[in-house]
Write a structure and sequence with these properties.
Organism: Cladocopium goreaui
Keywords: Signal, Transferase
Protein name: Nucleotide-diphospho-sugar transferase domain-containing protein
Structural class: alpha/beta
GO molecular function: transferase activity
């Protein structure tokens, strides 16, 4: 069956071939894509990938190669188009020829006043509102709500596709269109091998979680996807969000159940619904860590279920106070009292208190602008170890890891790190650590607070 591409205003409706006509067989995964299409319809540059590895490729092409193919996926694009956006010829050709694209819908969310109004109308009780607005003006609500609404629209399209197919997808993934993938996603077999036995599983990336769960990309079993379909509505209503937090407060400490940001709202919503979360090492995004893990795959490494005696561990976690890991605090993004006390006790933060505006109490962590001021306040980077709390408390910190090739292990063994990540009780272990800022680690050995979970370290003796 030939595909019909119909351009009407901002919508492209794509009539798919019958399932039996697809070369890759019926898709088992639906991938919902949101965000600004212009940022995904761009060529990868050195800022997105080390040494221009994928130079000349478009970000949406890397998505197709590293995600859609691996997951045997149908793609549902529900993205924003600025008024001056013109699709590239490569994108037009991709849409016209790919048998994976099920919907391609462009909206114009360049006027955000309606988003801010919905938040304020649904939150007459302002308990959660500061964490939703994040210090922004009424006309410029936090961009996450755009994405959440696009994913909700996508789920409507997924349901329609399932009715046409006659059966449901097995997995649904949610992704931002502007992310540069550095290497292959874990296979369907890896997901099956790490799924939880008694509850619906969500697989998240162990990076950029900010005291919650990374909301730029995650994948879940199909029964759990209804949560994302209703997530925007939950955030727009105090009553619905309070219902989530009544469940959360019953399961963890007061301070671990405090809201903070959209990543934490997502995590708490998933936990309140009883979802089980598995973690994978990052190979998505332009951060140094994702590029480094991606290189391991490109050098012959393989995805692997984390073994009982893990060879990948977090460094310098011994400096994290034990009470931070008590109960189920890490499951809910970490105890904000723990972060608060670490922050206040750090000498450099105290000396720059006026500049970084230390919160007066644990629940006052609001706004990325404050976090940015902290990171730029001093050369010693007085920052919050938000991503490291869960990783340090849950060792092993990932369920899907990357085993380096023999050649890579041999290369690392010839020159192991001269910095001790203080993981083993003896000094006999040899390590190769991957970090967002390796030079900074070398300069910070006398500042252990800054080093909590600062690196993912391979134990060369266990490889």
């Amino acid at each position: 069956m030939k595909k019909l591409i119909l351009w009407i205003l901002w919508v492209i409706d794509i009539a798919q071939p019958a399932s039996g006509d697809l070369a890759h067989g019926p898709a088992v995964t639906a991938v919902c894509l949101g965000g600004v299409m212009k940022r995904g319809d761009t060529v990868v540059d050195n800022a997105d990938s080390a040494e221009g590895k994928f130079q000349g490729h478009y970000k949406f092409e890397l998505l197709d190669r590293f995600v859609f193919e691996v997951l045997n996926a149908d793609a549902f694009f529900h993205v924003t188009a600025p008024h001056n956006y013109v699709a590239s010829d490569r994108l037009k050709k991709y849409i016209a020829t790919s048998d994976r694209v099920r919907t391609f819908q462009l909206d114009n969310r360049s006027h955000p006043l309606a988003f801010g109004e919905r938040l304020r109308r649904g939150h007459r009780n302002k308990t959660f509102l500061p964490y939703l607005v994040q210090g922004r003006s009424p006309g410029s609500p936090f961009k996450n709500q755009y994405l959440n609404e696009q994913w909700a629209e996508c789920m409507h399209a997924v349901r329609a596709a399932e009715q046409t197919r006659g059966f449901e997808y097995t997995y649904v993934a949610f992704a931002r269109i502007d992310l540069a993938w550095q290497a292959y996603h874990p296979s369907l077999q890896m997901l099956e091998a790490t799924k939880c036995e008694n509850s619906t599983t969500v697989w998240a990336v162990a990076d950029d979680d900010y005291g919650g769960v990374m909301d730029k990309y995650f994948i879940m079993q199909r029964p759990g996807a209804a949560i994302i379909e209703s997530f925007a509505d939950v955030l727009n209503s105090f009553d619905k969000l309070e219902a989530v937090y009544r469940i959360v407060r019953a399961q963890t400490s007061v301070s671990a159940s405090l809201p903070w940001n959209y990543e934490r709202f997502l995590l708490h919503t998933l936990r309140a619904a009883g979802r089980c979360i598995r973690y994978m090492v990052p190979v998505v995004g332009h951060r140094r860590l994702s590029v480094a893990f991606g290189d391991i795959l490109h050098e012959g490494g393989t995805w692997e279920v984390t073994p009982a005696d893990p060879y990948l561990k977090m460094g310098w976690c011994g400096y994290l106070p034990k009470y931070c890991c008590g109960g189920r605090r890490p499951d809910f993004g970490g105890d904000l009292s723990c972060l608060y006390n670490l922050w206040r006790s750090h000498g450099r933060c105290r000396r720059n208190r006026a500049l970084v505006q230390l919160p007066r109490f644990p629940g006052e962590f609001v706004g990325l602008s404050r976090l940015n001021r902290i990171e730029t306040a001093t050369s010693e980077r007085c920052f919050l170890p938000t991503a490291q709390l869960r990783a340090c408390c849950h060792q092993p910190h990932v369920h899907l890891t990357l085993r380096p090739s023999k050649q890579t292990i041999q290369k690392w063994s010839m020159s192991p790190d001269d910095v001790d990540p203080e993981i083993a009780s003896t000094h006999e272990s040899r390590w190769h650590c991957l970090s967002e800022a390796p030079k900074w680690i070398a300069d910070s050995r006398k500042k252990p607070w800054n080093l909590i979970g600062a690196a993912h370290c391979y134990d060369l003796n266990l490889l």
